[in-house]
């Protein structure tokens, strides 16, 4: 029961559904493109670019990494860029003194995609298992 119901407020009105978290749509988009993202991660590692591929998920303009999935072209809610730990250090997203901590936290790139999620409230790393 909602607090409004306890106070008899909002009588006769239907409760408004909670807005979906943007992470719900992100999860859906990542699931849809899981195989493609895995192939990109493997390519980054095989070509020797990095042992630590990072995907950047965003819904606005971003100048970090290389655009691989454009939400406007694909009709999805999120665009995805491919990058690496090294680029994140180079541009200052990861401080050089925190490099080892990032490496220690990084999960197997063969099992998990490392996603840097950028939303208006801020940004954070999440590890999502490949489907």
Overall form: globular
**Beta-strand level of the residues, as a percent range?**
15-25%
- What order do the helices and strands follow? HHHEEHEHHEE
Query: Mean pLDDT score, rounded?
Result: 86
Give the helix proportion (percent range).
25-40%
Biggest pleated sheet: 5 strands, mixed
Structural class: alpha+beta
- Termini separation: 36 Å
> Cα-atom Rg, whole angstroms?
19 Å
Strand order, largest beta sheet: 2-3-1-4-5
Note poorly predicted spans: 1-18
Number of helices, where a helix is a run of at least 4 consecutive DSSP H or I residues: 6
DSSP strand count: 5
In short:
By secondary structure, this protein is of the alpha+beta class.
Structural commentary:
There is one protein chain. By secondary structure, the chain is an alpha+beta fold. The chain is 35% helix and 24% strand. The protein contains six helices and five strands, in the order αααββαβααββ. The chain has helices spanning 3-6, 22-32, 34-46, 71-74, 85-91, 99-105, and strands at residues 53-58, 66-69, 79-84, 112-119, 122-129. Strands 2-3-1-4-5 form a five-stranded mixed sheet. A hairpin with a 2-residue loop joins β4 and β5 (122-129). The longest helix has 13 residues, at 34-46. The protein is globular. Residues 1-18 have low confidence and may be disordered.
